[in-house]
């Protein structure tokens, strides 16, 4: 006999019970392949509600009125019988620890009990009961929340910009650099008190962030920029390492006892300071916002007193950039040449690709001419090839970049913006000593850290970087290019010597920022730039328009295992990047790929741009139409929501058998539409009860939930209803986009 058990609150996940909730409603769905009259079902909730070591069972009662409950994709399994059961935990527990629970069931009084974990592998669920307020007798005492604070730390309470939040700044000294060697320091921050789950964003490697999860001891396998801890009382402790001030890089790691360590690297010849912010709130989102808001104040304070280019930035903003000019850039459908046309790029390949799009009635607004259009010296690989001159390579673009761009614009009038790719230091291998660029600008040899791209490289010296960028972007503008994708920005942090990093990191960032504002009015894509010094120096301040910034490692079409991880990683990285002055870019994808719909759904709820990189003729037209719409003027726009899409399950790891939920919103508060992308990133089919409380912005009012792929609509519901959920059934690689629409009542006069 086939049987599936689905529970709300969910098994295998953490559910935080708000401080004003006196009870918790449990609902269990039993799916079986036998008729109702053929089986007697008994379902029980097994929990340690009255004591950590005292487990007991509550029987669930069958619900009779279930015809209005929506089961998305139910038609895929017409022979399955569904029965619903419910019970309530009537009060708050007496003990302060989380309550664990699971479900057991049997099909007759003489049969033995079966456990959900044995059947499906899904772990126990946990309830964390919040206390009434964060503020109390220990509001100024960080040691109450983090034990073993290091003796060399300076801890200062700060005034948060978020409600019911505690905030501290923590600083630690870092030694000065000596010669070419940076100064390093390590200090024990301590261990958050009474936590059982943690989440962090780590430096996957130099250019990218990625999520890590764990239970009990903090054991992130790489240096972290952000870490969060869920306490027994439902409070969230969020810790942010701030970089980009005074040439100091700060990260979080751990010692053998699980204490959090503050590690600093100082490239300055003077002693430096590692800066860390700690916030505590009943909501992760609030605590996360508190540390990010205060980090922006720290960075802005520094820039105000020492930033020599701030006035020029302000002048450019006043004269050059209008928000409405960026509408096509943010919301236009974009084609990129990278995966679709390969690395042997030519103007003819671009023409063929654009003609293919036109034949298939696919109208794009933006075109990205990716890597390998530049004039490059020969080399054994891309890291040994240097940039020669501004003009395109003569083999692929024999008539020059200007004529190629003119041909594109003349034949494809829908294309508004054309961007070209280049690396932050010119190319992957820097500058060729034999080219026009090396002859025109001051150059220097720099050494990169050991690795794939390691070794010595010739680059334009930091002293001449502003002039080089200004000349290069003036050239691009003169030939009809009006946007750039600037890649390999992490090379600035890969420089091995402290004096080089000290001279190059901020100078190159500022030169690039000023030039792209001056010549392209902020139409730029920042890529491979999740290095902490770039995150905080260039992407956090709000003194310029929002920048398009790649949000994770690449889309790898030939690596099947990369696709679910790509979505999972982006949804978690957005927890940080939502607070930067950027639109997170979840990278291009291919519409005729086996994972195309999965990627397309994710891009639609990301809140960022949508790029595709199809090979000529390999298109899914219907999928493109689902992602886009036509304006009254005939332009094709993507249907981008108003907020950045991010995971709702902060502490659920990639290897846990749960659906990934990505939340976003369209419209004004309380009157707009809350959207939830649901993705099965696991190797098993999954079914979950998705609650109305999972949708942000649905705290008040009545809603109906619509499923995009099937068009099914739920019965009206409020958050206080017992059946305020829909059931979503997903196959492996399955997905769904759910939208909670508010209902309004009107009385019409006769």
From TrEMBL:
Keyword Heme in annotation: no
Cross-referenced Gene3D superfamilies: Aldolase class I
Keyword Ribonucleoprotein among record annotations: no
Keyword entries, A-Z: Carbohydrate metabolism
Pfam families, alphabetized: Raffinose_syn
Family classification: Belongs to the glycosyl hydrolases 36 family.
PANTHER family: GALACTINOL--SUCROSE GALACTOSYLTRANSFERASE 2-RELATED (PTHR31268:SF32), PTHR31268
UniProt-recorded name of the protein: Alpha-galactosidase
Organism: Cryomyces antarcticus
